[in-house]
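3.2 Worked example (two chains)
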Amino acid sequence: MRRQLFAAAGIVAATLMIASLAAAQQPAPQKWYVLHQEFARPGMIQQYEDTAREYIALLRQHHDALPKTEWITVAGDGFVYTYLIPIENYAALDKVLAGFGVLIPAVGEERWKDLMKRGGAATEFIRESIMMEDTSLSYVPAKPRLKPEEERYLHVDLYYVQEGNEPEAAALAKDSVELFRKKGVPDGYRLFTVFVGAEMPLMIVTVAAKDAADYAAREQANRELLGAEGQALLQRALALTRRFESHNGWLRPDISLEPLKPAPGK
C-alpha cells in the first residue's frame, strides 16, 4: 500500500460525516470501508510489492501507533492493487491520522521519505472511495460451499446505477437475497454501496471462489439453479444500470495487514 493510508484524508473526513448521517437513517447493520486502489507501473511490480511488504513490516513493528489499522489486499487485472480498509466511523479516521503523527517520528523521517519515494515511483496513480455494506443485502448461504480458507479468488461486478434509480436498486437487492435464499444457492456474495467516489451511484457485488475455473463453473451452476427468476432479476438490474464492469483478482495475504492475534493465554 502507498505510504499514506488515505490519499485525500481531508476530503474523506468531511464526506464520512455525510455518509454516517445516511447510515443513521437505515435500520439494518452497516459496515463501512475505505476502498483504496493503487495502479502500479507494469515494469515496477517487484519494487511496488517490496515496498508494500516493507510498509507492512513497519506497521507491525510500531503496532501501538495504529493498533486497529488493517486491510485486505486484492491484486487484480491491469496491475491494480485494491485495499479494503474497514473503518468504524468518523472518529476512527481521526485516530488513524493521529497514529501517523506518532508513527513517522518513530520510524525516522529520512527512512519514511525514502519509502514514500520508492513506493510512489512504482505507482501510476491512486483512487479512493468510501463504501458501505448493508449486511441484510449481502447473501450468506446456510451451508456455504467453500471454507473461508478456500476463497482465494475474487470476481467483482460494478453496477453504475442510473441516477434517480437508487430506491429501485435497493429493492432489487432485497429481492435478490430472498431468491438466493429460497433456491438454496451454495455460493454467497457481498454487496457494497459507494457513498463517496468519482462515479456514483455505484453498487459493487463481490463473489469469492477457489480460482477462475471454479468461479466459471459455479456461476453456470447457480444460473441454472436460479432459473427464469434469476434471469428476470438480472434484466431488472441491467435496466437500472448506465454502465457495467467486471473485474477479477487474487487475495494477497502477503501484502495484507491482518489484525494481530492475541498472545496465548490472553
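3.2.1 Second chain
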Amino acid sequence: MPISRRTFMASTTALAATPLIGSTPLLAKAPLVGVQAPGVYRYKVGEFEITALNDGFFNRPAEGFVKNADAAAVNAELANAFMATGAVKIPFTVLAVNTGSKLVLLDTGTGGLGAPTAGLFAANLKAAGINPDDVDTIIISHFHPDHISGIRPKEGLPTFKNAEVMVPTPEWAFWMDDAKMAAAPEAAQGAFKNVRRVFGPMAKDVKQYKWGDELVTGITAIAAPGHTPGHTAFAVASGKETLLVLSDTTNHPALFATHPDWMAIFDMDGETAKQTRYKLLDMAAADKMQVAAYHAPFPATGNIVKKGTGYEFVPAKWTSF
C-alpha cells in the first residue's frame, strides 16, 4: 500500500516519541560551528583556472522588485524554486580568472557595503590563497555598487594595489557625467556618489575599454546594455572551451531566466535589458555554452536550456577539479 505523507509523518512522529529504555541524551563531542565554510569553488575553462568567490547576499522585498510583474507572480516563482517568499535573496559571486600569465578579477563585490549579509569576498579571496597584491587586472562589468565597491571597501583604502583597472567606456561616460548625476532621482544619487568614491582617487589610471575588445588574452568584452548604459558580459575562452559570463543579464535566474521579459528594478532601460537577455540566453542555449551569472546561487555556473517561453538555469555538477 502506498505511504501517504500523512501516514509517513504520523509514523515518524510516533517513533520519535517512543523512549529508549535506559537511554540518556546523546550529545556530540564537537560543538555546533554556527558559520559557513569558505565560499570558494574552482573549475577549468580550457587551460584557464576559474575561482568563484562568494560575497554573501542581499534580501530585497518581492514587492516592486520586478517592474512589470506584481508581487504575487514573483512570490509564485520564488516558491516554484523552493525559495522563501516575500523577499528575493540575491547572491553575489566574483570570478577570478588565472590565464597562466594574468590573474584577473571580473568585478569585485560589495566591499562590505549595503548589508551585514554581504562582504565575504575579501575573506574568501584569502581562503582561496589569492593575495590581493598578486591581482594583475580588474575588469568591471558595470558601475552598480555591488560590482565595484570591493576596489575600495568601506574602510576607504584600495584593496588591489598593483592591479590595472579596466571599465566600459559608455559606463564611465554616463556615471562620471556631473550633469547626469545632477538630473538623477534621489534614489540614484548614492550610486553616483559611490562611483566617485571608488574611482575618483584613481581616475587618471583607469583604462576604458570598448565592446568587442580582447581585454587580456582570452577575455573579450560583449555588449550587454540595458541593465546600465555600459553593462558588459564577457567571453572567457581557452582552447576549445568558452565560458559566457553574463554579469547581471539575468539577476537571479529563477526569476529572469524563467521570465526573460521581466524587468528588474535595477534595469535602467528595461526594454533594452530584455532584448539583451533574450540575445545572450538564446546564444548560451543554442551553443550549449557554460555560463556564469553574478546573481545565480553559488558557485553560480552552469548551463542555459530553452524551456517553453523562457529558459532554465541548470547548475553545473560539483567536480573535484
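3.3 Remarks
The first helix runs from residue 5 to 17.
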